User: Fold these one by one.
Assistant:
Number 1:
Amino acid sequence: MPKLAWVRAATSLSNHEICSISKRHQAAKGWCRHLKGVGILKVLAKAGCVADLISVAAISFYGSEPNRDAPVQIVGGANKKDAGSLTFAGKSALVTGAAGGIGTAIVRALREQGAKVAAADRELSGVAAEAHLEGDLLDCAYVEGLAAAANDALGGLDILVNNAGVITRGPVTETSDADWNLSLGVNVEAPFRLCRAAIPLMAGQGGGAIVNLASCWGGKAPGPNHALYCMTKAAIASLTQCMGMDHAHQGVRVNAVCPNEVNTPMLRSGFEKRGFDPDTAVATLGKSVPLGRIAEPDDIAEVVLFLASDAARYICGALLEVNGGKPVS
Ligand SMILES: NC(=O)c1ccc[n+]([C@@H]2O[C@H](COP(=O)([O-])OP(=O)(O)OC[C@H]3O[C@@H](n4cnc5c(N)ncnc54)[C@H](O)[C@@H]3O)[C@@H](O)[C@H]2O)c1
């Protein structure tokens, strides 16, 4: 994860402390003289990664007399060895929807940070992972056995990402029974069954983290003409909050990421079906986002990794909106 944090030069860490943390990095010393302490770096220092972070930030700012009250961008340096609670060395993860837009990014990011990954999807030929568990999430037997299969293949299960999803469009009056079964089956029932199987496994191994993919549309502000999709995403959000409370005592943290629009096949296929050119439509949609663009899969994957990581060790039952500043209206 090359970009770790924005921190504000603020409090608590003395120049002496920063310099001693980063003493093996000569370049950092000049920068440290100017910067009067950054509280969050203290936390990062405990995670064992601050020296490299400081050194990279120092190289960026060295010679430019950084303003101690200005925001400081940590521009890199979180290598696998030093990133402490944000690394996944020795961790095993199961990711559903692993061949999709966001799923591909999650699998790649987890593996880059040292995790072993069991990928699950209907077709996985192009997906690099330690285990490939192909199947249909509408098949109850497959879903019921998936957590155990990942556990067996990887020698443990620390992380489950319920990422697979389908979108059905239209109001209720244009929604078929097949739409209902598909939406509920993939977006709600499969994560329910997977969590039910994974939680005891994780608890028995000392704990774990589950991250569900909900949506900005699944909560207080559903989008128009996607009744079933919004309802299923509200359901998984609610389930996340309940499981987050109910299983924290077992050391299993359950949280959800709620993206707004993300540039993936799910979104692009919708434009195509409505006769729009996806690239043009994505660019136009980006203008409605305060950050100036819709999300890319990596923007979501990195938040998933944060919630799955030890850095989020005190977060349970949270629904984290990732929206570029664009609320659903
Ligand atoms: N793209 C967006 O704008 C957006 C916004 C908010 C939330 N989300 C959520 O993010 C998650 C990932 O979405 P994405 O945009 O990457 O979509 P995507 O269509 O690119 O990927 C979804 C993946 O789920 C898999 N899948 C679907 N049905 C399955 C089944 N029956 N069995 C096994 N696998 C199945 C698909 O094969 C696919 O690889 C979804 O839960 C989605 O609802 C996406």
Number 2:
Amino acid sequence: MKQPQTFRYMSQTYHIKNEPLRSTSGDEESFRMGEVRWHLNEIGLHEDNTPECNRDTLLHEIVHVILGMNFSGGETEMVVDVVTRGMVHVIRENPDIIKYIQEEG
Ligand SMILES: [Zn+2]
């Protein structure tokens, strides 16, 4: 399946863009696989991500959106990684549960 171009969450639409991402650490060797640009409602994904890495990174950035821009601090990335890994396996291994949750009412 082709990567969707938008992500909807709490009545907001985030546009998903694949492009070169610069490191914010100033280290030329390191680069970011993804980022949330809160002020633009955008999720940036590095254009060189492999398809598998891109899927994981998209979900990682979605978890950042769920936690919100005020959730920050030293353990943020660890929390996001743990929740993302859990969600990947819940989603992949439980399609019936996902369909059930999608139903309204
Ligand atoms: Zn992160």
